[in-house]
Amino acid sequence: MKVVLLDSQIINGYDYSIEQKIIESAGFTFIKETCKSEDDVIARCSDADAILNITIKMTEKCISKLDKCKVMIRYGIGVNEFDIPAATKKGIKVCNVSSYCFPEVALHATALLLACSRNLKHYDTVVGEGAWNQKPGPMERRPSAQTVGLIGFGNISRTIAKNMKGMDFAVVAYDPYVADDVFAANGVKKVSLEELYAQADMISLHLPETDETRHMFNKNSFAKMKDGVIIVNCARGALIKTDDLLEALKSKKVSSVGLDVLETEPMKDTSFPLLNMNNVIITPHIAYRSMEANKELFKQVAETAVGVLKGEMLPNILNKKELGL
């Protein structure tokens, strides 16, 4: 059987030796392609039994041509790259790697929350301008006077809650899909979305991008939040309507923002308004990064391919129910 990595050119300097060793040790063939489009995938990979994908958007146009494919696996947690209904129609299992970077993303979000709370971008900027202690930013507040609101309460949010509570912040969270006893076990108060907006001085987003959540954070939701709220997003850029966020920052409804994701990525337009504000910190979608996380990702991608091809019923098959499995 043939396992094809579609876009091996994406990760600079990595030779995919971890995946190759696992896949070939299982008796399968591992092929590294350098596809840049669906047409490339159709032309070069239509005979693949398993597909590994980092960034290529795959619609029904492409998926319908994968006559041998049994599984498609995304390098990462999100699977917006795949048209899952089209894959299900074709009988193809869709998998992600759902647990490889929880500590890293939680740490990154925590760092952004703290950096925004302490106005670090502002102070770094004014010192660079030669204004030593002459241009104070908004008055900072001590942790015990602030409440952090977590939207989504999966493993990443639970780790952030532990981090922030350890520094004496109060923490509340909203997630209608998580049982009450999970909140209780983590010492976090479960609240409605409206209650979170009313209580939180800082809000961190941890949701997938779906039809329900796209642009969930817009002028209407900002209006319900506290004046001067801090917002951090290490999840998906499309959760926030960028134009509305910009207006909220200008009006100071939102005092500062920490973003690891944007609606448009990669962002290479240096005139993009958010890039030129000293109350906005933007990192280039790298919250997942660490040497340990990378190794775990590569290992789990390969093990998932091998497991599915061997007929194993793995927990990270996302369309298991739809396939009747």
Annotation keywords:
325 residues, alpha/beta, Rossmann fold, 2 domains, seven-stranded parallel sheet, five-stranded parallel sheet, 12 strands
Count of spatially separate domains: 2
Largest sheet: 7 strands, parallel
Determine and state the CATH class of the largest domain: Alpha Beta
**CATH topology annotation of the largest domain:** Rossmann fold
Could you walk me through the main structural features you see in this protein, from its secondary elements to its overall organization?
The protein folds into two domains: 119 residues, Rossmann fold (3-Layer(aba) Sandwich); 181 residues, 3-Layer(aba) Sandwich (Rossmann fold), CATH 3.40.50. The model has no long low-confidence stretch (mean pLDDT 96). It has a seven-stranded parallel β-sheet with strand order 8-7-6-9-10-11-12, sandwiched between helices. It is of the alpha/beta class and 325 residues long. α1 runs parallel beside α12 and α5 packs across α7. The longest helix has 19 residues. The protein is globular. The protein has twelve helices and twelve strands.
